[in-house]
Amino acid sequence: MTTLDLPPVAAAEPPGPVAAAGADAAEAPPRPETKVRLGGVTREDVFTVAGAAVGSLALDWTLFERVLPFSGVFGFLVCWYLLFLAGYFMLGRLQWGPLMVRDRLVSVVAWSSGLLVVGLIADQVGYVAVRGWEAAQHLNFFTESMEHTASLSPITSGGALNAVVGTLEQIGLATLFSVPLGIAAAVFMSEVGGRAARPVRTLVEAMTALPSIVAGLFVLGVFILTFGGEKSGFAASLALTVMMMPIVTRAAEVVIRLVPGTLREASYALGGSQWRTVWNVVLPTARPGLVTAVVLGMARGIGETSPVLLTSGFSPLMNADPFNDQQVSLPLYIWNYVKSPHEPMVARAFAAALTLMVMVLILFVTARALGGRKPGELTRGQKRRIAREARRAEASVRSRPAATARPAAARTASAPGASVPGASGRGASVPGASGRGASVPGASVPLPGSS
To answer: E-strand spans in 309-416?
Structure first.
């Protein structure tokens, strides 16, 4: 056996002040961790952007007004933006390295592009709101139709109630027709496949680029002229269905293809059939994307004018029946009144455009609320139900040992020679127990090997 000689342990000395300080430092609680921010805006960033913007504006004004024979607001803004990017790059090169300068320059381009898009949307919404506020501020615009209103009638007479009702009914019927067909076609192309999947995909892609006037002519020639149908909201909804179905199909196919294949394999391993896997696994997982596909289709159809003009006609009367007689919608209402030479009619058209924007906004918000949860995320009601069932199961588990302990204790006490709980040794028995080996309470029990 190999042995190891260790030096003798030194005697413990009383700790000095240095050792005590080290011990206190070792026993001190650790400092809280400081959160490191990987992004953010610093003072140097703000000054660099401001300096580049002011310098490029001055240089742009000098070039446009004093040096070059240029004019126009659009050219002035484009040159200002290009000079701003060049000035930001040069100022950044004086402070940071090449890699950081490129990173900051890309960030500035992305932020400026986003602000440009937001500015354009705000400009459009603001212009429509300003032009249409004269008519939208009166309640009669939302509660009356144009049945008893002429071109020279005051703004307090007439409204767009008939157009709002027509739009809701037509887009509702078109959604009812196009969404099941579109999702079924997407499931067929992505889950079933086969030889027919390629022709169907080619046809859907061709219909995606179909002009809206062609869809209106198709319904006009087939449903109205061939089968003898009349111009109505139902005919308009058929034309909108032709426009919406390829959008829903393409978007739904892309979303369904993003579902992981391992989920399908797990369902098949548990014995699920193909249709049950699609219904219970694939479609619930792709629900947020499918809601987005439906919203995209509705946004495509809700603003169409030409197919509605050919299939539903125009009527200033209130018609809540989409299957009989002509029915007007908001796009057709706007198209008919915005070209009027009378200012009240133009104000009503812009108010109808503002109403259409609000309807689209409500549509998008509702869709995000219904399908905004992540795949597999439970609703509030489902979470409350699961918590309630968990509390019931926990209460039943707690009450079960108490109910089963009483009969067991009774059986143990009535058994002959029952031992005392917690007593050690072979001779300890319950006080008062009948039998030859019963011992007195508190008597000592001889242990094995004791004398």
So the answer is: none
Calpha distance 277→265 (Å, rounded): 9
pTM of the model: 0.68
**Which two three-digit tokens encode residue 420?**
């005392």
The answer to whether 301 and 171 are in contact (CB under 8 A) is yes
pLDDT (tens digit, 9 = 90+) per residue, 111-145? 999 999 999 999 999 999 999 999 999 999 999 99
* Burial zone of 347 (CB within 10 Å; 0-12 exposed, 13-18 middle, 19+ buried): buried
| SS3 per-residue string spanning 43-86 | HHHHHHHHHHHHHHHHHHHHHHHHHCCCCCHHHHHHHHHHHHHH
Q: How far apart are CA 145 and CA 147, in angstroms?
A: 6
Q: Please, are residues 179 and 271 in contact by the beta-carbon 8 Å criterion?
A: no
Asked if 240 contacts 301 with a C-beta cutoff of 8 angstroms, the reply is yes
Q: At CA 71, angle to CA 66 and CA 75, rounded to 5?
A: 110
Does residue 163 contact residue 149 with C-beta atoms inside 8 Å?
no
Identity of residue 70: F
Helix (H, G, I), strand (E, B) or coil at 40: coil
Give the number of other CB atoms < 10 A from CB of residue 234.
Answer: 22
How many helices (H) and strands (E) are present in the chain, helices listed first? 17, 0
**Contact yes or no for 224/311 (Cβ under 8 A):** yes
AA letter at 115? L
* Tokens at 105, concatenated: 């320059």
Q: Which band of pLDDT confidence, cut at 50, 70 and 90, is reported for residue 404? A: low
d(CA 81, CA 67): 18
Q: Is 310 helix (H, G, I), strand (E, B) or coil?
A: helix
Helices (H), 161-211: 161-187, 197-208
Distance, in Å, from the CA atom of 75 to the CA atom of 323, rounded to the nearest integer, reads 52
